[in-house]
Amino acid sequence: MRKLLVLILILFSIAIPVVFKASADELGKVTEDLESQGNKLAELEKKKDQLAEDIASASVSYYQISQELTDAESDLSKIEKDLSKKEKELKQWESDRNFLIRDLYKLSRISPIEIFFSSDNLGDATKQLQYYDENLEILEDQ
Description:
It is a single chain. This protein has about 140 residues and is mainly alpha-helical. The chain is about 95% helix and about 0% strand. It has helices at about 1-105, 110-120, 120-140. The radius of gyration is 52 Å and the shape is rod-shaped.
């Protein structure tokens, strides 16, 4: 029995280092894999944080652009209303002007000879003829 015990001890003394060596190698490999996975996890965490920052920044930018667009649309609406009012006002002015031009044309058909003879002196006649010519040119241009 003693021989058996010695034999078993010898086998264990040979087998234990081999098993521990294999276990140590596997442990080293597992440790390396664990470190590698930890590094990958850290990189993924950094990417996740960067993406979260990018999303937050994009959300703020989107909100700002959306607000600016809303403000611009509001301003455009006000300008369109003002433009519509101004166009109506312009049409009214044009209508009034055209009416006055027609009336002036109908009422003031005075010939240059009538202007000349209705004046008290030659200086007044010259001034009135110049005024008549200027106004006649203005009416013709319109």
